[in-house]
Amino acid sequence: MAELGFVDLRRMSHACIISARSPEEALRTARHIAAAAVCTGQGGKPCGRCRACRKAGEGIHPDIIPVCRLSDDKGRQKREISVDQIRAVSADAVVLPNEAGRKVYIIEDADSMNIPAQNAALKLLEEPPAGVMFLLCVTNAGQLLPTVRSRCTELNLNGAAAGEAGESRALAAEFVKCAASGDPARLCRWCGKNEGLDSRAAEAFVESAGELLADMLCGREEAFGMSREELLRLHGLLGRCQAWLRVNVGVKHIFGLLAVDAIAGGGNRG
Ligand SMILES: [Zn+2]
């Protein structure tokens, strides 16, 4: 987003996932939305002129609360946002705002919340205290639990990558259809056809497939007749593939694994 315009707060829910290519871009957008949420000016928000907007711009508004990964004792940023941090947010969120009509929590690198942290966040998102807004900054929304995603609206800033994303989404849909068909031979053929993808394309495919399954779990996409258990199992499998790709497991191995494991019991029966 080159130019951040006014924010239509009526269209924002109490929780929004802001997905961008870089953490900086996601954070910049989150700060802009947060400024709009506390702005006391008339007309378009954020006005950029009122006291609240100025404080937001300087990062000192008491009702805009950043949540980020802590540093260890050597000053290095930790890999994960912990459950204790999210519990602290839960405790703080019920306290009334200081100045503004609402409180806004900006969770930086929300995709680095570990599973217990995400489960704690889920409770918070299910029963948010009145007037509180959560902005979850991510570069990989696929790292979030489907149940967390289903509680949030998503703002996707990855416009530039739309063509590429469309391609991997189409591949993802083909793959999920093959898995849903329950036909191991069909799945095998499909995996064989795609095992030559380069690692970048394979990563994009695996991420898209994870997102598609998350959308199916939340009812945003038709699930090709698959049960919730099947969807969750496939989602878990793709999560593991994503982790393996990250440690440079070969693309061929990944597709081999998908061919065997994407249909429950398919490798044994087929
Ligand atoms: Zn303002």
What topology emerges from the helices and strands here?
Layout: E1 15-19, H1 23-38, H2 51-58, E2 64-67, H3 83-93, E3 103-107, H4 115-126, E4 132-138, H5 146-150, E5 153-156, H6 162-181, H7 184-194, H8 199-217, H9 228-246, H10 251-261, H11 266-269
Parallel strand pairs: 1-4, 1-5, 2-3, 3-4
Helix pairs in contact: 1-2, 3-4, 6-7, 6-8, 7-10, 8-9, 9-10
Zinc ion (ZN) is lined by residues 39-41, 46-47, 49-50, 52-53.
Summarize the structure.
This protein has two domains: 9-157, P-loop containing nucleotide triphosphate hydrolases (Rossmann fold, 3-Layer(aba) Sandwich); 161-265.
How is this structure best described in words?
The chain is an alpha/beta fold and 270 residues long. It has 2 domains: 9-157, P-loop containing nucleotide triphosphate hydrolases (Rossmann fold, 3-Layer(aba) Sandwich), CATH 3.40.50.300; 161-265. Helix content is 50%, strand content 9%. It has helices spanning 23-38, 51-58, 83-93, 115-126, 146-150, 162-181, 184-194, 199-217, 228-246, 251-261, 266-269, and strands at residues 15-19, 64-67, 103-107, 132-138, 153-156.
Spell out the key features of this protein.
270 residues; Rossmann fold; 2 domains; five-stranded parallel sheet; 9% strand
CATH hierarchy, class of the largest domain: Alpha Beta
Please outline the major beta sheet: 5 strands, parallel
Strand order in the largest sheet: 2-3-4-1-5
- Count of helices? 11
